[in-house]
């Protein structure tokens, strides 16, 4: 089995953008996943913010080429729920010892949210070196991440929160950034697969 860093690093390098998905109707799961994968974004983060999220993960995993994980994982209980339906990676908005220890023990690729040096140091104590920087823009944007990342040369990040197609290239140009998270490709509501695929193609072509 790959260690956590190797496994999550490989996932983060699949494409420059990880779609962050808030889906209210499980019937939308497969069309959205098919459109994103066809557009070149195979890594899909389904946030546990809606009642159908667990079912959405299960359905999206049936789409060939999709790598489906759970986001907004807040506790070991959320982790168990996500793993029960086969989530291939886990993303959290923050990092607590309880969640971090449970995720590491499970062996699942884990991308914990960090906002400051203390968060990163907690992750390093757990053997983690790949982090989400969240909320990226509200947290001070690119200058903040540059300053926070500077003492941690081994760490790499997926900034998420407030990033758009126009600003993503500037984030991706940073040495410490492997990919960004974004929700702009898939607005909430009834999906338009053609528009989603087109947005995914544009996002997949982004690279600083």
Can I get a quick summary?
The chain has helices at residues 4-12, 29-38, 53-60, 76-84, 97-106, 117-125, 141-149, 168-172, 193-204; strands at residues 17-21, 43-47, 67-71, 90-91, 110-111, 113-114, 130-133, 156-159, 180-182. The chain has 208 residues and is of the alpha/beta class. It has one domain (4-204): TIM Barrel.
Characterization of the model:
The chain is of the alpha/beta class and 208 residues long. The protein has a single domain, classed as TIM Barrel (Alpha-Beta Barrel). The protein contains 9 helices and 9 strands. A 4-stranded parallel sheet has the order 3-2-1-9. Strand 7, helix 7 and strand 8 form a beta-alpha-beta unit. The longest helix has 12 residues. The radius of gyration is 16 Å and the shape is globular. The model has no long low-confidence stretch (mean pLDDT 97).
Known CATH architecture: Alpha-Beta Barrel
Q: Can you tell me the CATH superfamily?
A: Aldolase class I
Low-confidence stretches: none
Radius of gyration using CA atoms only: 16 Å
In spatial order, strands of the major sheet run 3-2-1-9
- Termini distance? 32 Å
Domain module tally: 1
Overall geometry comes to globular
Main pleated-sheet profile:
4 strands, parallel
CATH class: Alpha Beta
Structural class: alpha/beta
> Beta-strand level of the residues, as a percent range?
15-25%
Mean pLDDT: 97
Annotated CATH topology: TIM Barrel
How many H/I helical runs? 9
**SSE pattern:** HEHEHEHEHEEHEHEHEH
């Amino acid at each position: 089995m790959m260690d956590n860093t190797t496994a999550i690093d490989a996932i983060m390098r699949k494409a420059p953008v990880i779609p962050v998905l808030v889906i209210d109707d499980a019937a939308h799961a497969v069309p959205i996943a098919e459109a994103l994968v066809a557009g070149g974004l195979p890594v899909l983060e389904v946030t546990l913010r809606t009642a159908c999220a667990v079912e959405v993960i299960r359905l999206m995993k049936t789409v060939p080429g999709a790598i489906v994980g759970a986001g907004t994982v807040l506790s070991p209980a959320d982790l168990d729920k996500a793993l029960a339906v086969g989530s291939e990676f886990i993303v959290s908005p923050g990092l607590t010892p309880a969640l971090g220890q449970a995720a590491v023990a499970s062996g699942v690729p884990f991308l914990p949210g960090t906002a400051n040096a203390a968060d990163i140091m907690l992750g390093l104590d757990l053997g983690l070196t790949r982090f989400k920087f969240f909320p990226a823009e509200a947290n001070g944007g690119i200058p903040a991440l540059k300053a926070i990342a500077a003492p941690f040369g081994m760490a790499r990040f997926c900034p998420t929160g407030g990033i758009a197609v126009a600003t993503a290239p500037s984030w991706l140009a940073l040495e410490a950034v492997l990919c960004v998270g974004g929700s702009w490709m898939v607005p909430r509501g009834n999906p338009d697969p053609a528009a989603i695929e087109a947005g995914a193609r544009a996002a997949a072509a982004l690279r600083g």
